User: Fold this.
Amino acid sequence: MSDDALNTDQDWLMEESTCNPLKMAQWETLFTLANGYCGLRGSLETSPLLGDPGFFVAGVFDTVEGGKDELVNLPAWVGLELNMGGFDLDITEGEVLNYRRRLNMRSGTLECKIDYRDPAGRTTRWESKRLVGINKPHLGMIWGTITPLDYSDKATLTGSIDAWSTKYGSDSGQNHYEDLEAGDLGEGEGIELGLKTSGTGILVAEAARIEIEEESSRSVRVEDDLVAESLSFQMKEGIPVSFSKKVSFFTSRDVADPAEKARKKLKAFAKLPAEKLAEEHRREWAKIWADSDVVIEGDPRAQKAARFNIFHLASLGNSRDDRVSLGAKGLHGNGYKGQVFWDTEQYMVPFFTYTCPEAAKALLKYRYNLLEDARSNAARVDCPGARFPWNSSFHGREEQFKAFGWQDHQTADVAYAVDSYVRATGDREFYLDSGAEMIIETGRFWTGRVEWDADKRAYVITHITGSDEIHTSIENNALTNYLARFNLLRAARAVQDLREAGRWDKLRQRLGLEDDEDENWRAIAKDIYMTSTEPQGFHEQFDSFFELEDRMADRSMKPVEYTGKVLGGLEETQVNKQADTALLYYLFPDDFPDEMRRKGFDYYEPRTAHCSSLSRSIYAALGAQVGRTEEAYRLWLKGAEVDYDEEASCDGGIHAASLGGAWQALVFGFAGMQINNDGSPVFEPNLPSHWKRLCFRIQWRGERMKVDLRPGTGDVSSQ
Assistant:
């Protein structure tokens, strides 16, 4: 959004000015570069083993002991070792005179500058930039200069592909590599390393090549799990030496022979100057920012937080592959085994729906492609239709299956995301081919999940857990019950839409349904039980919630301390882990009076520990919508900075859903975006008092809209 980017360069930068090995894993997460296809953790190239190096390709899972799947940490190609006349540029030895690394979010690059004095008293300057191709998904590149500031001597630059440091680097600590094969491609061609994942049999190939502008001699070291290419050259005092390392990577998910493809692609990359590749990369990021940037004037701290969240979420978008989705830790680390949770649809998909609809459609098609597994999950608990799993990988079978008593709202969450996407895009082809079937099958699940309660004269959902997660196996969680109602009604409407399109009979026969089953869905939805709103004026979170000990959340505890016995000990209190009823009021703003939603915010927020990164953004969005704007701002800022504030705990990867929640709070909360009766977006802004302007763009039904809001005024125009 170049015409609106009135902020300083600092609003686009995340900087590390001191190398602290104890903080290295956190900075590796913050400095991760991704492109939807792959993610490279921000390890220090001259000393990658100081931290937790990681390279992940979406969809490359392997099975671990116990039958679960995890994203594989693939061989690290980031390493570049420099030896100057017998001394290594090793920041754990010698003296670091100047150290700065910074993520440039505008250009999608990681920059590094180190002035290093070796034990002989000589000073070397290392300057580098790094990218993972946003427009070339199979490209990785590091380029820069080496300058001997006060001496001349021979130097050796070594670029490696290292499987040794990562083979046990996945979440389980299990080695997923089989058939490791490292090799030398020859003078001027580079090196390669290939493997096969031990359980899933996916072939992975990486090829790399280093170049310098000085005359050099080459040598190669090949070991069982590492291959390294070295170039030796002469350095002259004060004269920079330019270098580059280009890498290509493919898997058998992409092509039949990934090794051959990686070699060919590396040759093609080698023909292009590093700066040309970098300029193409920067231009592509400029296009992404033109669609997704949010400008906040009057608050530099909030501006940087907004861009940090948008950058990392946008870097995960992938419209090219509908066999993968977004893991809870992104492609930024091995936390949660890289698996996909319900928060993908509720927290992350909306960002792509309104900024990159093709990526949103791919994420929803991922669920459709796993619909058969979801049907099997439903059958396991004697329900019709489809039950999407709590977490998934390359398949959709429930891995943490607990039958009833666990969460089921994720099934309706998928239907909600499909509905929102179709409303925003008008993508009738997707809806008729895939989306309607997902909505219908998830709606059918609830017909088996609900039970008739003669005393309540309503359908109830028992032995359930809401999004709160502290209170388990409860009765009638308000959020889940209302989502089930929505899902059933939306399924009935999907049947009507298919009838009108002449598509219903074929699907009905394939699913084995009666022609009038949608009438039963409407009848069940009409009688689904909702918890009382009396006398408080807002919904009780679940049956008997108000009978629990009324206790405020202890905000002095760190999120990581709310685990195990602490969480279990809170089951008899009204303390929540994260947004639950607040999420209900946020998802369905038009279905409940503002006064009810305001009272719900006022009651539940002080009783919510926010020990999940999912929580604050929802309360911020709801708070802004109901007039609690300043409290909403404090919640939003805390949530938006969750990965880099003083209490940050992100060594194992980014809090990906929190990224999407931060964006939603800006757009649906402070900007007050709603869909009016004629199906178009309207805005009722509630800006924090010190914000001078909130400006962003969304896509709606194929049209690009610019939203420009200031205190007391606003403008929405086509772009």
